[in-house]
Every structure is written in C-alpha cells, then in structure tokens.
Design goal:
The protein is built from 8 helices and 10 strands. It has about 240 residues and is an alpha/beta fold. Helix 1 packs across helix 2. Bound molecules: fructose -6-phosphate.
Length: about 240
C-alpha cells in the first residue's frame, strides 16, 4: 500500500485528479463511490473539473458501496439522495448509469444481483473508500468475513453514534444497511482511501501497522495490489 499524507484540500484534489485521469484514459470507466463526509471535497473537485471541461462523465457508470435499510432514495439521509445532491446533479453523468443499492422495497433481490451487475459492466476501475473509526469500510463492520459479497449488515453502536451527527436524533439512525462486501471491494482494480481527523487515527494505524484480521475489516486492503491511503496529519498521527 502507498500512503500519502497532506491536508484535506491537498489529498482531496489528488484523489479527484486520479478520477479525472482514469476517466480521460477510459471514458466508459466504472467508478466505485462512497458517501459520508470524507469524499465531499473530492466530489467538489470532480464537479469543478467537469464544469471546466477537463473531464466528461457522460459514458461512465458508477456503483455505490452501501445504503441504509428503511430509507427511500428521496430521504435526505439516504445515500442515493447524498450522491445526487453532492455529485450526480452537478456533472454530465447519465443517472441511468448510476447504481446505488436500494434500502426499501425489493432491496434484497437487488442486493443479490449487485456483484453480478458490477461484473456485467466489466468490474470497478477505480474505487474510493472512507473508513469508520472502528476500521469498517463500506458497512463491513468488525467480524465481517473477508470473502463477503454484497449483503445486509447490522451497524455497530460506534457507527450509529458516529453517523448520528447527520440525523436529528440518534434514534432516527437506521440500524441496518445493505453493503458491498469485502470481497466485492477487493475486486476493484484500483482503490483510494481517504481519512481525515483524529477520530480515524486508530483505524489508520490498524490498517497500516496491524495484523490482517477480520476484526479490522480495512486490514484486508493490505493484500490489494493497487491501493493508496490518503490521510491528513491527524489521521496519520499514531503511525508516526
Ligand atoms: C459510506 C461508507 C462508510 C464511510 C465511513 C466514514 O458510503 O461506506 O464506510 O466511508 O463510515 O464516514 P465519514 O466519511 O462520514 O467519516
């Protein structure tokens, strides 16, 4: 794994540049996308590059990592809403080619076909990940099997607490989600992970220095052939 340390603006711009480079080299790239606070500046920089005519996403397809169970795509905390609001509504992508797991209705049927659907598009070329303070990636919480494909996950108390900042009350945070599995993520050809803030320092330490164990889901990335970790000084502080 490669590690790049710098402030949030700097690392976000570097990651956005990776997406621009990827899409310019292969206009019909398949992009793996994450929600949460971590990728927000990356998406803002991608929007800027698109508006400045440096890249076009019109032939790309996207697959998102996860979705809360119980939230309609129109709910303002759903991940479909997040993606439309923070990226898709502002770039020239064809929304029919953007895929976000469903959280309501026939979500189990859609979940079961998700990995095959990714494969039918040729697999993910470039995947962005955030990381949870407990070391989760997507919603793969500690103890998730390394060979997992897209599945239903129970969120841990620490994840519910972390994510409650975005809801009016912690009781409104869904307790379950549908998520790409660890194997689904490892299938991506290239992975970039972004982590900022002290809250992520232990997870980054475990990712870079700890043993590979299912108790630390992100540690599976140690085996990925093309994975770069981008973090700020705070997230990197325990590694130094
Ligand atoms: C979101 C996701 C999660 C987040 C993680 C960090 O699609 O997959 O694993 O990346 O919970 O969230 P933030 O970035 O809000 O700290």
């Amino acid at each position: 794994m490669k590690v790049i340390v710098g402030n949030e603006d700097y690392i976000s711009q570097l990651i956005a540049d990776e997406f621009v480079k990827q899409v310019n080299a292969k206009p019909n790239s398949v992009l793996g996308l994450a929600t949460g606070t971590s990728p927000l500046k990356v998406y803002a920089d991608m929007i800027k590059a698109n508006k400045e005519g440096k890249v076009s996403f019109k032939d790309c397809a996207t697959f998102n990592l996860d979705e809360y169970i119980g939230l309609e795509g129109t709910h303002n905390q759903s991940y479909r809403y997040f993606m439309n609001d923070n990226l898709f509504n502002h770039i020239d992508i064809d929304k029919a080619r953007t895929h976000v797991l469903k959280g309501v209705g026939d979500y189990e049927a859609y979940m079961r076909q998700y990995d095959d659907e990714i494969a039918s598009f040729g697999g993910i070329d470039l995947q962005i990940l955030g990381i949870g303070s407990d070391g989760h990636i997507a919603f793969n919480e500690p103890g998730t099997p390394f060979d997992s494909l897209t599945h239903i996950a129970e969120l841990t108390e620490s994840t519910i607490k972390d994510n409650s900042r975005l809801f009016n009350d912690i009781s409104e945070v869904p307790t379950k989600a549908v998520t790409m599995g660890l194997k689904s993520i490892m299938n991506a050809r290239k992975i970039v992970l972004i982590a900022t803030g002290k809250n992520k320092a232990k997870a980054i330490y475990n990712l870079l220095k700890g043993p590979k164990t299912e108790e630390v889901p992100c540690s599976i990335l140690q085996d990925h052939p093309d994975c770069t970790i981008y973090c700020d000084e705070e997230a990197y502080s325990l590694v130094k």
